[in-house]
Design brief:
The protein is built from nine helices and 20 strands. It is an alpha+beta fold.
């Protein structure tokens, strides 16, 4: 018979407790052991500091976005300081006297945006560089380069510039697919408004295929992306991004009123098409037949119709017999519901072959064949 003393009992208890603790240390997973509260707070903070999709999109596209400084030399006349003749404007008007003038030159400066889409090539708006004698392109890293115009097209308001540098590798923007965007998608406008580099605004796509004629612009040939992302002076030529940082449009136009503002961008698919032509030939072909179009509603059928509003004299339309007030039903294989349908069908047909056009004139259905020509030929007639 073994008799345990108090001392032996204490020793036995301590040994048993130590064994239990040792076993717990072996079998219990590490994540069950309490961590310091400081680390928990750090993990919580890191969750809240996660980058937004906007900042990630801008970081992706940011290095490719450029500032375009333009300079134009203007000569103006002023009265010679050496002249001793003081001419009263009324006296000059009545007697036809001209005071002695001397020519003074000044430099007019402006600024816009653009982005690098291929090695050494920048795309921007044609109105940004129009009439410029000198172009300086600035990158986000502070480097600046001279640039020359590869080609520009005022009908689509696009221009391509070539950077004058031996640099081989350039930060290029990722070009998206504007045919895949939908109303309600995120839109991120980036540019340099008022000279403030890489300014970012956020909005949504609010309309697709907005014809510029609906905005009262008749000297351009464009269908635009409409967004409520703010575009300010200096943003022109900068990219409109989707949530993945891909370029889906080129910022080009704003329409503002008290309490509201709308911005418009050229779809990137159209811009790629125009840029390719400018790089290859320095110009863009715009197939036209020489008519203006009016969108109307037929109240009897409650359907949209497209009516001819004007026919350019000696144009392909005039020569083929199209008349004012004719209703266009079909161009090629395309049924016509809006003036944009006509423009797209003729552009797709090109200038090398004739296209079938179905018309309604009064109660008669008429089929004609018309061969489009480049818009520059219409202007020269």
């Amino acid at each position: 018979m073994i008799i345990r003393t108090k001392k032996n009992s204490k020793v036995f208890f301590k040994r048993k407790l130590f064994s239990i603790i040792l076993l717990l240390g072996i079998f219990v997973p590490p994540n069950c052991i309490a961590q310091p509260t400081i680390k928990q707070n750090q993990n919580s903070a890191s969750r809240f500091s996660k980058k937004s999709f906007v900042s990630e999109a801008v970081e992706k596209a940011g290095p490719s976005i450029v500032t375009i400084d333009t300079q134009r030399y203007i000569k103006q006349k002023r009265i010679s300081k050496n002249s001793r003749i003081l001419i009263d404007p009324y006296f000059e008007r009545f007697f036809g006297l001209q005071p002695p003038y001397e020519t003074q030159q000044r430099i007019e400066q402006s600024q816009g945006s653009g982005f690098i889409f291929a090695d050494g090539l920048v795309i921007t708006n044609a109105h940004v560089i129009k009439g410029s004698d000198r172009l300086i392109v600035g990158l986000t890293n502070g480097k600046k380069f001279k640039a020359k115009v590869v080609g520009q097209d005022f009908f689509t308001d696009l221009a391509v510039l070539k950077l004058e540098s031996t640099q081989r590798y350039w930060p290029k923007a990722t070009l998206g697919d504007s045919s895949k965007i939908k109303v309600g998608d995120w839109a991120i406008a980036v540019g340099n408004p008022f000279g403030l580099e890489n300014t970012v605004t956020l909005g949504i796509i609010s309309n697709l295929k907005r014809n510029v004629s609906e905005l009262g612009i008749y000297d351009k040939k464009l269908e635009l992306i409409q967004t409520d992302a703010a575009i300010n002076p200096g943003n022109s030529g900068g990219p409109l991004l989707n949530s993945d940082g891909e370029v889906i449009g080129i910022n080009t136009l704003i329409r503002s009123s008290p309490g509201a503002g709308l911005s418009f961008a050229i779809p990137i698919n159209k811009a790629k098409e125009i840029a390719t032509q400018l790089i290859n030939t320095g110009k863009v072909i715009h197939p036209m037949i020489g008519i203006s179009l009016i969108d109307e509603t037929n109240f009897e059928s409650n359907k949209s119709i497209v009516k001819v509003g004007y026919v350019v004299p000696k144009s392909p339309a005039d020569k083929s017999g199209i008349l004012v007030s004719d209703i266009i039903l079909k161009v090629g294989q395309n049924n016509i519901e809006s003036s944009s349908d006509v423009i797209r069908a003729i552009s797709k047909n090109g200038i090398k072959k004739a296209v079938n056009i179905s018309l309604k004139r009064g109660n008669k259905l008429i089929n004609l064949r018309v061969k489009p020509t480049d818009i520059s030929n219409l202007n020269n007639r």
